[in-house]
Amino acid sequence: MEKIIVVIILAILALLFLGKQTVVMVGVLGAVAIASAGMTLFFIFFVIRLLFSKKRKAKFLRIERNTVFKWRAAFYEIDGAEYPCVFPDDGIMDDKIYKTDKEYTVFLNRRMGKVYDRIAVTTCVIGLVFTLAIDFGMIFLYLLFYR
Predict the structure, then answer these.
(1) Would you list the domain boundaries of the chain?
(2) pLDDT, tens digit (0-9, with 9 covering 90-100), for 38-85
């Protein structure tokens, strides 16, 4: 749905500035830059939270719908308490990724009351690297074309 709204807005902008392609391109690149900067801030926030987490051994319990949010998350048991994973479960290959009889190393953030499992750590690191690369690429393109 969001993609359709974005296409409609871009089409309206193109019609408004017909003949002024540079204005439309700058607008599109600006929208992409704002979205990329927002994603970068998102990943920086979660990486900082990850850095202040403690490494713990945890037992995987189940994948269940989170009570606060509407997505499904992996739940782990640490010292008798249950903690959900910070990121939602995507539902792909759950039987291969999560084993109930296995102990995992997770990072527990007590302030958030959530854990970072290996999938969440990988998501944070790769997401931060890619969004920073996109941000630097956008800055490079801006300096290259509009200097």
Answers:
(1) 2-49+124-145, 54-116
(2) 999 999 999 999 999 899 888 888 777 766 667 777 788 888 888 887
